């Protein structure tokens, strides 16, 4: 297939692009490089630099025609979304609607969207099923939920085959593609920095140790980025014209912040220096995915569920870059 990957210069988009190329698909990346890197786009894919305002030209121009669009481009820092909601509504919601107009005008039949566990907010029950209430606790989650809802209506009205993949906590790396966020805010790369970094000031701040969880720290469901990439292949194959489906992508198992830090210490052989810090606003205590629907309907389940494997892969990627 010929596939447009938006956000393909970012962490997850570059891994998805790599997997698509491995499978023999042809890939064009559309990315404005706001948080991504041109040299992160895997060799073999063509990079077009720009926002979704360029999507129609790309989809209808010489690089086409396209069979599918994978839409990963977004801002994804929750804290930032609380301080600057306007940036998230514009960049995640308005930009996505611009892309959707282009997809419909160009007659592309399939679209897979990167949604998030943040659409659920504080879950009433875990593991979280796709039928759970969607009550996001921050503008990031809301800006993504709006697109899930738009897709549902657009698919039904215009015959689009669309899927929202609601990722939980994505970790690990695939070959030369991995996490290069600047600034980095995610637990595993920060814990690796704290364990392996040189000099002072790199203590890992544990955001809250008085949550109603077994050790008082938040619990998250980590999923290997290569499994996320494989789920995109399954979604492309399983998308149904005229329908929109939401799928949670996780392992169905939670690890507390402390358990992650212990696993980082085991993998690196180094202690992770920590300090206690205040809770981060909007952080739910526990987020764990139910993988039932995606297994039943797309036949997908994670092939790399081990937390230590994810940390090892992230650590290998970090070492290769330092
Ligand atoms: N990292 C996670 O754990 C996680 C969890 C759930 C959902 N997601 C979603 O997955 C997607 C990828 O996340 P990531 O961690 O790889 O982030 P990332 O910041 O590494 O990648 C995002 C990419 O999108 C590009 N981009 C942003 N806005 C753009 C725009 N308007 N036009 C063109 N390009 C634009 C950036 O330059 C970057 O290359 C995002 O949609 C994010 O919301 C990530
Ligand atoms: O320095 C840190 C960084 C993180 N944490 C804790 O570690 C856990 C995981 O935090 P991350 O920032 O790594 O990930 P989030 O769960 O906040 O967010 C991830 O999952 C979300 C879905 O809930 C969104 O999709 C988001 O884009 C994605 O990065 C949280 O409890 C957080 O409080 C710390 O204690 N200290």
Automatic annotation (TrEMBL):
Single GO molecular function: UDP-glucose 4-epimerase activity
Reaction equations catalysed: UDP-alpha-D-glucose = UDP-alpha-D-galactose
Domain NAD-dependent epimerase/dehydratase stretches: 3-250
Record key words, sorted: Carbohydrate metabolism, Isomerase, NAD
SUPFAM superfamilies, A to Z: NAD(P)-binding Rossmann-fold domains
EC number(s) stated in the UniProt entry for this protein: 5.1.3.2
Recorded metabolic or biological pathway in which this protein acts: Carbohydrate metabolism; galactose metabolism
Cofactor: NAD(+)
UniProt cross-references to InterPro entries, sorted A to Z: Epimerase_deHydtase, NAD(P)-bd_dom_sf, UDP_G4E
Family: Belongs to the NAD(P)-dependent epimerase/dehydratase family.
Subunit structure: Homodimer.
Protein name, UniProt field: UDP-glucose 4-epimerase
Organism phylogeny: Bacteria, Bacillati, Actinomycetota, Actinomycetes, Kitasatosporales
């Amino acid at each position: 297939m010929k596939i447009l990957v938006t956000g393909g210069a970012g962490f997850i988009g570059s891994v998805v692009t790599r997997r698509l190329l491995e499978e023999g698909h042809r890939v064009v990346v559309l990315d404005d490089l706001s948080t991504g890197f041109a040299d992160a786009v895997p060799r073999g894919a063509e990079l077009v630099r720009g926002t979704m305002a360029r999507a129609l030209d790309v989809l209808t121009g010489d690089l086409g025609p396209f069979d599918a669009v994978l839409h990963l481009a977004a801002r994804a820092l929750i804290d930032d979304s609380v301080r600057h909601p306007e940036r998230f509504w514009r960049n995640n919601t308005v930009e996505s609607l611009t892309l959707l107009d282009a997809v419909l005008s160009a007659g592309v039949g399939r679209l897979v969207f990167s949604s998030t566990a943040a659409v659920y907010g504080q879950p009433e029950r875990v593991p979280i099923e796709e039928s759970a209430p969607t009550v996001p606790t921050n503008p990031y989650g809301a800006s993504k939920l709006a697109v899930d809802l738009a897709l549902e209506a657009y698919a039904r009205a215009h015959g689009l085959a669309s899927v929202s993949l609601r990722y939980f906590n994505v970790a690990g790396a695939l070959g030369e593609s991995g996490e290069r966020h600047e600034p980095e805010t995610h637990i595993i790369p920060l814990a690796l920095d704290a364990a392996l970094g040189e000099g002072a000031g790199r203590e890992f701040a544990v955001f809250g140790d008085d949550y109603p969880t077994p050790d008082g720290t938040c619990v998250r469901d980590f999923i290997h980025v290569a499994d996320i990439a494989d789920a995109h292949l399954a979604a492309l194959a399983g998308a149904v014209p005229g329908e929109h489906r939401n799928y949670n992508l996780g392992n169905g198992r939670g690890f507390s912040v402390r358990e992650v830090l212990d696993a980082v210490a085991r993998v690196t052989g180094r202690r992770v220096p920590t300090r206690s810090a205040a809770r981060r606003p909007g952080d739910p205590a526990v987020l764990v995915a139910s993988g039932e629907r995606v297994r039943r309907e797309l036949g997908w389940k994670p092939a790399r569920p081990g937390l230590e494997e994810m940390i090892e892969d992230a650590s290998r990627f970090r070492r290769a870059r330092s």
